[in-house]
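Researcher: I'd like a candidate sequence for this fold, 108 residues long. If you have to choose between options at a position, lean toward the conservative one.
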């Protein structure tokens, strides 16, 4: 939590989760995991219904327009997301047969 501006985090009402992941991603290498790690429920009246307010809050700590490098990275993430095993050499997966986590290595 040393890389998180707690004043900014406490002020957020909608995008706190995004803020934490954003701070985290600036200081560690993230891995691709072939597994559902979480979920959420939709209920009438929940704060996340106000997507425009969520996006406004994102603007309070994100730059308003991504630069060229960010746009290229986003494009590559989308392309890789279509077929992650094709474009990434190592993906962490859960082996249900052996009941353990491990790296799935591509065979190219």
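Model: Candidate sequence:
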């Amino acid at each position: 939590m040393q890389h998180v501006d707690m004043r900014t985090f406490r002020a957020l009402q909608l995008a706190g989760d995004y803020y934490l992941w954003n701070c985290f991603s600036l200081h560690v290498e993230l891995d691709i995991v072939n597994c559902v790690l979480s979920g959420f429920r939709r209920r009438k009246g929940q704060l996340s219904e106000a997507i425009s307010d969520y996006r406004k809050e994102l603007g309070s700590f994100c730059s308003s327009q991504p630069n060229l490098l960010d746009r290229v990275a986003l494009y590559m993430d989308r392309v890789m997301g279509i077929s992650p095993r094709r474009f990434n050499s190592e993906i962490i997966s859960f082996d249900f047969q052996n009941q353990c986590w491990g790296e799935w290595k591509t065979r190219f």
